[in-house]
Amino acid sequence: YPSEFLMQKITEDNQIPVHLHVSVSLQYVAGLKGNALVEFFHGNIAEVENEELRHLMWSSVLFYKTPNVEVMACVLLSTKAIYFLLDDSFIHADEHQSDFWNKENSDCDNSSFHLSCCFVLKLNDLQSVNVGLFDQYFRITGHSADHIVTCLTRDSYNTHTFIQQLMAVLSLLARTPSPEPVDKDFYSEFGSKNTGKMENYELIHSSRVKFIYPNEEEIGDLAFLVAEKMDGLTNLQSLNILLYVLAFQVNHVEGSAQNTSSLQPKTLILTSSDLFLFDEDYISYPLPEFAKEPPKRDKYQLVDGRRIRDLDRVLMGYQTYPQALTFVFDDVQNQDLMQNLTLDHFGE
């Protein structure tokens, strides 16, 4: 251990997405290759001597306790735990986290010393993994609110690879199997007999960890919600969601020395007639078993919606992935062009 193929794969995966900024400490980690990376893992992160590093991924993450703070993390999967190596800036991002994060070492004034905090979720504590729509993200759930993390990969390939690696590692865990149900038919396994409503598709792994995938009803619910936002202008039957993608909305910061821009996480939904931007809650739904009350905000909150027929042009950037798109819409919000002439545009 480790094999040459694994070393090469981990080295290739150790790249920070170009559009996201991270602290110096995480840049140091991203600069490590091959043996140096494995030695760094065993010397600084691993909790047990005989655990093996199996997978590395860079992803934005959200914690259940701090649902509004998205932070960049280096996610390391070993045979014992999942480690989230986080930006030190995350500790200072929200003052209400003092009970969640241990701040003992976070007051280092020495600028040459860069701290990263590491959040550890042991595989034995893992209860379920919820995969988001179109594999754009996944949520890992442990036994308490402190142990719920969503990885916003924004990439179906990265999600799929991580899930495959996680399943492989969980197969190594020795757990007593769950008792088999007495009569195992389709309806008792996938549906609720009381309501007649199909539940989300569940795969129960041999380690007793549930892998929960969205079913077709989730798309139906989303289509209904989108139709509602369109004020019933369209027939729900004819409304098709063509694209669902987690993206960033670019807000240019005015008056700064450099032409900087801030990235606001958004869910983009394209239908056959409209383009929508939503603020989505990626961490609170579906409700964890211990939740005593529903989340403070809805899963989807409409930010902007425009008709495709008002789309004037689409500007494409020439940089490599991720691609920047600018949608230019006509400013005319009302079809009746003569309406505004009643206003006195020519007075003082």
If you had to describe this structure to a student in words, what would you say it looks like?
It comes from Phaetusa simplex. It is found in: Cytoplasm. By secondary structure, the chain is an alpha+beta fold. The protein is 20% helix and 30% strand. It has 2 domains: 4-102 and 112-174 and 196-212, PH-domain like; 216-329, PH-domain like. The protein has helices spanning 4-13, 24-30, 34-45, 89-93, 156-170, 186-190, 216-229, and strands at residues 53-63, 66-78, 81-86, 117-122, 128-131, 138-141, 148-152, 201-204, 210-213, 241-252, 261-271, 274-280, 300-307, 311-316, 325-329. Strands 4-3-2-1-7-6-5-9-8 form a 9-stranded mixed β-sheet. A 4-stranded antiparallel β-sheet has the order 10-11-12-13. It has a two-stranded antiparallel sheet with strand order 14-15. Helix 1 crosses helix 3. The longest helix is centred in the middle third of the chain and has 15 residues, at 156-170.
